[in-house]
Amino acid sequence: MNLQLNPEDLAFRDEVRAFLKANLSPEVIYRSRTEVHPPNEDDRRWWNGVLNKKGWAAPSWPKQYGGPGWTPIQRHLFEMECRLAGAPELRWQGLRLIGPVICEFASEALKKRYLPPILEGTEQWAQGFSEPGAGSDLASLKTTALLEGDEYVVNGQKLWTTEAGYSELGFFLVRTDTTSKHGGISMLIIDMKSPGVTVRPIEMINGDVSTYEVFLDNVRVPKGNLIGEPGSAWTQTKFLLANERTSSADIDKAQGDLRRIRDIARKTQKNGRPLLEDPVFRQQLAQLELEVEALDWAVLRVLCNAPSHHPVAASASVLKIRGSQLQHKLTRLAVDALGLRSLRLYSREDAFGASASDAWPELVPGVMVDHLYMRACTIYGGATEVQKNIIAKQAFGL
Amino acid sequence: MDFDFSDEQKMLTDSAARYVRERCDLDSRRKAAKTPDGFSRQHWAHFAQQGWQALTLPEAHGGLGLDMVDMAILMEELGRGLVAEPLVDSTILCGELLVSSRNEAVASELLPLLASGDALLALAHRENDGRCEYDTQVTARAKPVEQGWILNGSKHQVFYGNAATHLVVSAEISGEMGYNLFVLDVTSPGITMDVYPLIDGTRAADIHFSEVAVPPSAQIHSAGSAAKAMDSAVNNAIVALSAAALGSMEAVMAMTADYLKTREQYGQPLAKFQALKHRMAEMLVETEQARAMLFCALAALQGSDMQERRHAVSGLKVLMAQAGLFVAGQGIQLHGGIGVTEEYAVGHHYKALMVFEKRFGDSDFHLARRAQLLT
Ligand SMILES: Cc1cc2nc3c(=O)[nH]c(=O)nc-3n(C[C@H](O)[C@H](O)[C@H](O)COP(=O)(O)OP(=O)(O)OC[C@H]3O[C@@H](n4cnc5c(N)ncnc54)[C@H](O)[C@@H]3O)c2cc1C
Fold first, then answer.
1. Is pTM, for the whole model, over 0.90?
2. Cα–chain-centroid distance for residue B209?
3. What fold, for B226-374?
4. CB burial class (10 A; 0-12, 13-18, 19+) of residue A109?
5. Is-contact B82 B349, C-beta < 8 A?
6. For A235-254, how does the pLDDT look when each residue is reduced to its tens digit (9 = 90+)?
7. Measured in angstroms, how far is the CA atom of residue B272 from the centroid of ligand 1?
8. Which chain A positions have a beta carbon within 8 Å of B358's beta carbon?
9. Pocket residue to mutate for ligand 1, from B258, B262, B276, most atoms within 8 A of Cβ
10. Domain ranges, ordered by start, for chain B
11. What is the ipTM of this complex?
């Protein structure tokens, strides 16, 4: 057992830090740190390109397709440093979800066509899994894709397709065989500009639009856009989740949140002194800092395939549950630290525009909208209750 | 002891419940939030017809002379419908400051307008550095001149300041200790505002006073009585807002239980999952504790012991906010994705409860106050 980072890892971290310092402007950092949802799309595309030039855009991809060949620990360090430095959060749908699936399962033609623009950041993706009737119970999805000659004809309705309104492409779960429940589900790439694709924005609790309803009405898709064999979507989805086992812990965001809370508490007064000196507040912050530290080590254990008494599928759910609960608490403490000021609702323009004054310092925008948006993190990506069912089954056979 | 509603109280509940059911749907709330006022003038006018602005004001000045129990009954019903009209700010908070004033002239002039809904008052007390009404330093200054004072200063995040006809402003008179309270027409020369929306769709304003002429008749509390009057008025406001919070919680529980019965996943209604049934049960446990504290605080308001009132009101504020955010948070959770949309009411209740938690001293403030009062 070696519980320390290797010298190479430390050197790697220094290299990442230097790169981030050299490439991020204060404006970009400010916009990222507001945590406004969805983040600034131009920043994300630009940053994707910058990272790609360095060969760092797709940490989770195999080297032969453009990945940097890092160890899991290096990936982890990289993501943490990016977050703490205030780098734009890259779009996860292309880089983290469908990219690795294409690398693993798709035809050479699809790899050639779709992988490079993901690395460059020029084509962004949306994930079309959920439907009105298929949320937690994803397997009950109804959207069909039936073969007519060389094309699939797609009909159905997707819900919660995040960022569909400004994505070039989508990967959709569709039923290519309508006779079985779990079988017959396939993953299909659809150009969002295809005739028959309509998107409706959904206004969210935080006042912004980040997710969409997608209507698919006789959309014709080339047969070759199906990933792998028909009916193999579950295998692909399992692979995709295994690949992202620790990301739902949101540990880098949690560390960023701690930094933000400290910042607020340093600059906010309570009884004529900085809030950070208030003993009650310090206890609250210490409690959360402790929980984040424990989560960080739990993530490291999973990343390093640490031996465990319980199946790794249970560990992933443990990380998701604890990480998302922590998001509720961290974003709430940030709101509480700000106090009444947190209640102000900023427009996106104002939030990104850093229209700061003495009465409204620049650390105010985004704090409440982040908290409100993060109420969703115990719902998306497998709701807490469903994760608990998974743990009960995987760990205890219940 | 007797917790039963009188016939009048039953009528009040019924008429408020009917109004909320028929007129206060989410669409109308969302529309009102998009108007410059951030609330509905139509609702406000209806409230006036019903005498709701007049409810607690003295009969001698056009009020109905009812008490905080009646107000709480009304507010709970209105809270169910996400009512965002400034009933509490105008008639409870500022109303109480006028009622307790010894300035008979201004009280008899303004109270009838307040009772009829024609005047709308907002409290401009907290300043930049204060976390709440209790701990704010008042740096606004009223400089004595031959006829009254000249006022300079800024007030931060005045709720409903944008829509007010009059402002109750705190300021120190140069050379004195402690703040005074003045009531000013918003159109007085030298008053400017920066208005912005809050998360519940209402508006607040930063209000600046520059060389504003304040006539002698505007003084409603001198340094001797202002802080005590403020304490009382804020107590009442907290109790009234707590009742509205309780209404929110009841609404959330009702809509969540309905949703669980209709939404199906895995081939059965969500209501079949025991985990979710238990969550609903926990929500009720929290709500009932908070409701019990409401009565504790109402009892304390009927007494005259200021310490006891503070103790009970702080307790109510803490418990109601905790329970409220738990209930609305779980309401969102049990709805799944639809719970975090603007198109569905449960998220609006969460935001309303968040506003409640932050106003007039947050949970940390009130728990600290309870801790101080521990014997
Ligand atoms: C902000 C946001 C972004 C999203 N982005 C995407 C996206 O990009 N692409 C995509 O495909 N989807 C996306 N989703 C959808 C997300 O994955 C679903 O919301 C999620 O799967 C839950 O489904 P549901 O909303 O239909 O809730 P439901 O499944 O209806 O669940 C409602 C409640 O019931 C509980 N429940 C359900 N089943 C059980 C059970 N068996 N036992 C106990 N409790 C149960 C749930 O935990 C939840 O509390 C997003 C959702 C949100 C909110």
1. yes
2. 24
3. Butyryl-CoA Dehydrogenase, subunit A; domain 3 (1.20.140)
4. exposed
5. yes
6. 999 998 887 789 999 999 99
7. 17
8. 339-340, 342-343
9. B276
10. 7-116, 121-221, 226-374
11. 0.97
